[in-house]
Amino acid sequence: MSPLEMPASGWIVLAVAQAMLMLMFAPLASGFSRVLRAKIHSRKGPGILQDYRDIAKLLRRQSVAPSNAGFIFWIMPWVLIVTMLLIGMALPTVTQVSPFPISGDIITDIYLLAIFRFFFALAGIDSNSMFGGLGSSRELTLGILVEPILILTIVVVALAVGTTDLGYISHALATTPWHQPLTIILAGVICAFALFIEMGKLPFDSAEAEQELQEGPVTEYSGASLAMVKLGLGLKQLVVAQLFLAIFIPWGKAASLNADGLFAAFVILFIKLLVVFLIAGIAENTMARFRFMKIHRAIFPAFLVAVLALVFLIFGW
Amino acid sequence: MTNNTVELYSTKPQQGRIGKQYVDGVNHFFPSAIIDEEWQTENQVTITVKMTALVEVMKWLYYDQGGWLAVTFGNDERSLNGHFAVYHSLSMEGEVKSWVTVKVLVDADSQEFVSVTPTIPAAVWGEREVRDMYGLHPVGLPDERRLVLPDDWPEDLHPLRKDAMDYRQRPQPTSETETYQFDNQLGNDSNRIVPVGPLHITSDEPGHFRLFVDGEDIVDADYRMFYVHRGMEKLAETRMGYQEVAQLTDRVCGICGFTHSVGYSNTIENALSVDVPFRAKMIRTVLLEVERLHSHLLNIGLSSHFVGFDSGFMQFFRVREKTMELAELLTGARKTYGMNLIGGVRRDFLKDQRLKGIALVREVRKTFSELVDVLLATPNIESRIAGVGILAKDIARDFSPVGPLIRASGFKRDARIVHGQSLESYGDVPFELQSMENGDVQSRVMVRIGEVFDSLNIVEYGLDHLPAGAILTEGFDYVPNKFALGFTEAPRGENVHWSMTGDNQKLFRWRCRAATYANWPTLRYMLRGNTVADAPLIIGSLDPCYSCTDRVTIVDTKKKRSKTIPYKAIEQYSINRKHSPFKL
Amino acid sequence: MFKLLKTVIKTGEATKKYPFAPLEVCEDFRGKPELDAEQCLSCGACTRACPANALIMETDVKTGTRRWELSMARCIYCGRCEEVCPTKAITLSQNFELAVTRKEDLYEEAVFSLADCCQCGRPFVARKLLEYVLDTLAQSGVTGEQLKLRRQQLETCPECRRSNNMLDSENISHLRYLEEEL
Amino acid sequence: MNPLVLVLFALVCYGIAALVSLVGRKQEQDSLRIAGVISAFGGLFGMLAGLTTIVCGYGSADAAVAAGRVVNMDMLSALMVVVISIVTMAASVYSINYLKEYLGKGGWKINILFNVFAAAMTALVVSANVMVFIVFMEIISLASWLIVISDGSVSSKKAGLQYFIADHVASVLIMAAFLILALHANSYDFSAFSHNPVTGTTASLVFLLALTGFGIKAASIGFHGWLAKAYPIAPSYCSTLISCVMVKIGIYGILKVGVLFLGATQMWWGFLVLIFGALSSVLGVMYALAEHDIKRLLAYHTIENIGIILIGVGVSMIGIATHHPTLALLGLLGGLYHLLNHAVFKGLLCLGSGSIVYRMHTKDMDKMGGLGKTMPKTAITFLIGTLAICALPPLNGFVSEWFIYQSLFSLGKTGSVANLLAGPFGMVMLALTGALACMCFVKVYGICFAGAPKTEQAANTREVGPAMVTATSALAVLCIVLGIGSPWIAPYFSAIASSVLHIAPVSVANGMAVYPAVADQAILSTPVIAIALTLLTLVPATLLYAFRQRRLANRQQGDPWACGYQYEHRMTVSASGVTRPMRHMFGFIYNNRPQQSLTERYILPRLCLTTDGSQSVEDNGLDSRKVHFLCSTVALFVVLFFPFMSGVS
């Protein structure tokens, strides 16, 4: 592997382009989830483009904040979108290596996700609403439960390849034979679980639990700010899904920057995402929400399995 | 004292006087307590007791003889006997099942009566309502807050007094803001407040709950209802004729209106001894069960929704739609059937409807049993509902709740079984009483699931075995000042009505106690110790009906009674004690 | 989980594309009461039976008309009016789509012309009711003079009839019955 | 100029400042202001001394020459001097406004102690002789103890006593370790220790003694009780020194003994430090979460960060022992970088919280709220501090933690089973710490600064004076600079680390990016991330602009949604409410937490002190004479212990 360095301009263009595309397709992904949801409800439901219509409409509306809210409340949607875009830029989605490795270190990425979490939770408290506050508390608690698992599973894989750069991990897993297949598969399963929690879908959507907390930190958002939050949360789901794909399903991506390869990779990515969102959609619609105060009982065992993956790594399985 | 002792002293049971033992027992243990004894039907008796003996008599009937307080209400009988009256109706569910109504006359000048709440917590709402509506002061009642009247209502205007006000009168508000004091009995000021309702995503109903929380844990809860009190009782007494009230009672509740309508019709039929034809009785029975079907399916669906299992919610609603269709087929309306007249029903079931109905029932049964399997197999459902929102048995015994709520706490209370012989055709249809022991949300859901199957069986049986004959008895005369209880087992529990006929082709007094009215007071105890996430589910597991009575606020008699009575009340209490031997 | 998916696949789509597709209701559905004004005699039985006071009748002497009005805002679709109508002029239709954009559209009315009193010329009874009674009489075998006399009687308003009676010496005599008997 | 001369200047400045405070105690306000400025200059000189050493690479060359001298400035000392000086400087500037609070309440005494304290610490880290070291250590102990008990309340006396005892137990252990070393080297000079390292079991014994002793001083977990009690009581600008700097002396000592004197020969030492550090970090932050007293909370965060630094040190020691110089360098680099960063952001947070307490007169967070509106500058700087301590990119906390992560990863990569376990273990613990810190500081910022004021007092606060704002702002800027400037700063740390480890410097930066020595392992460029984050704000901006037609301007009005009911101020989360679910889930940690410290259990009862802390205690129980007597006995014993023991031998 060649040393990591500042990407060339062509790669930066690709990075920006893919981040923008993700932003553009985020409502499509959430729209698809809604369609799937309607199908499982045995109802007709809105069209797949409904989220575009919702967001476009909300963007034209005034934002209102509670009188006591501070500036955190206003900047949260911005932070949300910006951090997710930065992660989006770094993901090796259509290319074998990361187009923007500067933010493509797994540790950096996990901490970028933490920025989102920090501001999301803070905005919940800042909005002064009890529901926002409780949602914040839940979001942070989930972070505490999930982050170690995420780190551990990814590190296990990273150790198997010897680098923490997302692009290189992806590249190595795609192009070289797996020496520790069991480790990687086990880590992949647990990582999928952790990232599913990170996506904030049922049964782990505790922070925004509609029936319990009236969408938690999002409660007080309205108009254009709400549109941005929705967009950001949709983007987050897409980014998180692709983070998983980048590491554990790394095949079918372009080796270099040429139009044909990128297009083919794009199509393959689209199919991969379709499958991921299909599975996630089925999972979220066939389960009840976890009882929040017992959620750790579901997550602690996952951590133990992640430890098992580490043991496998040590044994070289 | 057990039931056996009752038999020792009781005289020979009189023919057609079910529950005579209880009256004899009162006479035996509290000699000369009873001033008057009136029998309304063969199993309904009203005894007028001396105020001084009220608490003891009530205590004996309630705790020693297996009585449950069905309803407490007031009546302005000054035009009849110069007094106000307070009634406590008890459903006696000991060895002999009957109804005993204990009545006390309240002096029109002192306007005070002895509160039984410190002894029988179940009376608290009734007594608070009597205070609001009649201005009678319950001596010893710990809760000084209003129940029904809004905060901005004038202090001395008591709507149900006959000389108080016209039903159209709207007094000027006396305050700008809400002054209701919410009560955190177990926690302190460091507890934060989670508001739930009136416009919460799972509780978009006119009730305001506040959960006093420490983090996510509910330390205590308080709530207030009656935001849209519709004044139906006043309306019925002053504006409507007997038959119109049957239509009005259909609208007490959007879901279980028919049970109210039947309950009301029964009061008049009982009071005037009108015989309802068997066919009409069976039609009523079938429709009562149809109502239970859609109500239970609604609640089971909502339980899924509250735990985030919206797919289950939608699927149960899909089945529920079939039961709505069934109602539409049989009555011409999806809800608010408008079928009852005093003396029977207005509309017959035709052969074709019955056949279609039976087919629908079978379809629902099949789909529903599939969905129950799905629900019970859904991940996390059990962990969400098992052990959550437990209604302890002692609380249940003290507060006389009804319906699936109490059946899930191990008490076998169901008016259809207990008083089945005097309730429409329930004596003739096959079904069992569903009850569970754990008292948690899961038990309530399971009880409801069992009852759905029962209801399906009853509906099918009823449609299949509809007796021949007329559907309406006509041509009876209305006699003034006759009164009786009417009761039905609504989906949420027993609905109790009490009517007294008037001398102007209008009711003198109509009292309607919806099931939820009896259930609300226990909610606080169920919420304690659970988490915010469970609150909607627990509230929902009551299957609360806000419009039903439109009368809901808290009941808060703490278990340690002596501690909760405010000083002033104790003072008054001790003054009264001088004159009267009643004890706490 | 899989059971649910199985059910879902088996069920397909349970919802209808209402309001873009029609929604069927049962045959005996109690929807909006429809008045067949042709049939209606404006007898007023429905207005008396209506528990919700949704039906009213008003007589306008000036224009010589009687107005029947149904307020959809008050109607509770109980069907009492249908039950009591002697001519089956009111039926509860299957129509339940009753939302309107203007409040005035909630009201339905029918106007019936009144017959004038043959003496004082003031309107007093619905023409159709009068015709109906006369037709009934005719069909029940009343003919000729008798019918004419009855017509005259019926076309007289109650007030005129009362004053007629007062003026009629036969009626005034308190000995009339006694005389007849004698 | 010789950096040691600059250090001398700094010490002189502190001395003058102390003198000014003493002499000018009649015109307290003016003299304290002047003293503040003078101490700030002292800090400046100290910083210059450290920086010149580091930038010119002055110290590394003549480490050997320094034998026989009582003072010496090597790269490590230089770093320590910088750290001490930065914080002292900020605290001094801060004190210009802050001490107004203590006018007439012995402010001048506190300021004297402050300067003595700062001077002693500066002197300690440049001392190259055991005797000097111990004397300054004792001065530090006494000065800080006096600061802690300065407000004279019973609780402060209790806390002070506990601190004093813990500190002196540590001193004894440290001296025991030094004694062994000195006996072995037959010299009191530090340079002699490193030239004649002890070996075998003795080395392990020395190491354990030193680790325990300095561990207590560093307030690492298990030995942390005193910090959480003493820190909140001391005046904020002094407690900043205690929590940001004094505990670092412990790290310095562990490094000195473990790496420099003993050469970190045993691999298990490194593992011990690593595990110790990991536990410190996780438990520290967990205990912090349970607090609603802002000062205690920050005290526990010190424990957490000490743990993080120790993880780096541990990795480094494993690297040395297993002969992986790059690994050793990476670990030490991360640890030392974090040592500086912690001083900066923690200094910022301590001073910031000081500002709040200065206005609020309470440390209970539940009484605050809405301070972001009334104290906007403090709020912004505090927010930057919280972002930094939560290790959010691109601020300084992230950079150093990133290096520690990378060192742990490299540790995992080295292959042995133990390393394969230890690397991921450390990373998981770090991740857990990061997530917990995130929660903790969301809570702190959210409850104190965000939302609505929860009391009248909070609503009536106003911004603190310019000097206090300047101090916090400067530290906030430093947080950003140390973060974004990492590609230019990290090489210096690499140099420091390599000088400590006596290996050739390894390149860790390339242009605008840093990498963990191995260029294909990872890359991080905080400046580029900062630029990217800034530029990406154009995206939402464009989006909002594109849909702007007829959209009304943002509006702030009304109460939050209370389900249609009247909003009440209690409808927000409380400080304990935020963390409640977490404390429930990790109940096994909280429930098994010892309720009393050892001092509370064994020593305070001997002083006839009732534990309920009631005010009557003042008269009969903990009377000052008893305490002072006890303390002076202990101090005397400690100071004389060493010469006596060495003399005996």
UniProtKB/TrEMBL annotation, chain A:
It is found in: Membrane. The keyword Transmembrane applies. It comes from the Bacteria. The chain crosses the membrane at residues 12-36, 69-90, 110-128, 140-161, 181-197, 233-251, 263-283, 295-315. Its main location: membrane. The keyword Membrane applies. It holds the Pfam family NADHdh. One of its GO terms (cellular component) is plasma membrane. Keywords: Membrane, Transmembrane, Transmembrane helix. It is a multi-pass membrane protein. This is Hydrogenase 3 membrane subunit. The gene is hycD.
UniProtKB/TrEMBL annotation, chain C:
GO terms for cellular component: membrane. GO terms for molecular function: 4 iron, 4 sulfur cluster binding; metal ion binding; NADH dehydrogenase activity. Residues 31-60, 66-95 form the 4Fe-4S ferredoxin-type domain. InterPro entries: 4Fe4S_Fe-S-bd, 4Fe4S_Fe_S_CS, NADH_quinone_OxRdtase_chainI. The keyword Transit peptide does not apply. SUPFAM superfamilies: 4Fe-4S ferredoxins. Keywords: 4Fe-4S, Iron, Iron-sulfur, Metal-binding, Repeat. The keyword Transcription regulation does not apply. One of its GO terms (biological process) is aerobic respiration. This is 4Fe-4S dicluster domain-containing protein. It comes from Photobacterium chitinilyticum.
